[in-house]
């Protein structure tokens, strides 16, 4: 699928990133007859293939995999694709659409050229573009707290991006820091393998998996949650910075109740506060974090209950939620050496790295400012980010709508530019 091993001097559109967002954008550009190139630093499917653990699977069901004109058509629409199946799905989409991709090329800079075009500097050289679509995602730099540097060398540290399986870790107990989707799923992976696990619980919310006879995402889809746009969200732009609900697609999919894992021997703590040598301190917020996650869980159930009542749907009734475990007190201290902990897995997320974009489109936190992916800087766009427009924007479910919208904007702007050029005095005189 590599279109070339060198760059042309100019492209109407340069797409940076060959994941699902970049490939979806390329698909619509091809349909619109707009010449372009897709620049991929590694190879198609890299993040799914090389930055996920062995038992990784989607947390959303397969029917939500809806790349443009390429919906999931396998035998298990209500199942959850494993890592290798996700890679195969993405590669099959690329084989069908045959995007003009150049793999193995890194983009080192995007800036405004003197003639007004965008200058794209890469490991293959430099080209100019009328439009640049950034489809690199926001997971560039793994976050590790500064206090991690005080840990003794005897403690193995790795980020979730480098975790593969329990056998990879040295013998001993494991502290997983972070209770977002990666943290709780890695915790479960270790727990099921018989490892003794400690989990630092943050503020991530949780969701039911199956409720009142149906998978919760089916109910939420009917309720219109996935069509809710960020400009109508109660939190507005802040929704883009909220942690996703945790659950899992493992073994057919199930919800994750950290209280049940506590009953099974997983030790829970609150948010990590600091580290001094082998002494780890936590904020006294475990009870609050568990309660708030459960409140979100119960709110989702209540929304579904209300929808069932309004629509008069015949659905089985489930008993009210009950807390199966409650901490006696919020633990605030942990001695790694005394507990036999030999490994810490950091699962507290990533931050985007857009330092290579030398254009004034970022806020004080380094996040791009845009409206549905369209920035105020002429010719620069973003796609594939969470809540770019809707809840599904950063997923296989909603990326096609966002890519189609951006290509529509680009097409209109290219047409306007061509009309303006044709109407210049020099052209008219000719």
TrEMBL record:
- Pfam families assigned: Pyr_redox_3 (PF13738)
InterPro entries, per database record: Auxin_biosynth/cation_transpt, CHP04046_FMN-dependent, FAD/NAD-bd_sf
Q: Is the keyword Manganese assigned to this protein?
A: no
Q: Does the keyword Oxidoreductase apply?
A: yes
Which GO molecular function, any one, fits this protein according to its record? flavin adenine dinucleotide binding
Q: Which UniProt keywords apply?
A: Oxidoreductase
UniProt-recorded name of the protein: Putative flavoprotein involved in K+ transport
Origin organism of this chain?
Answer: Pseudacidovorax intermedius
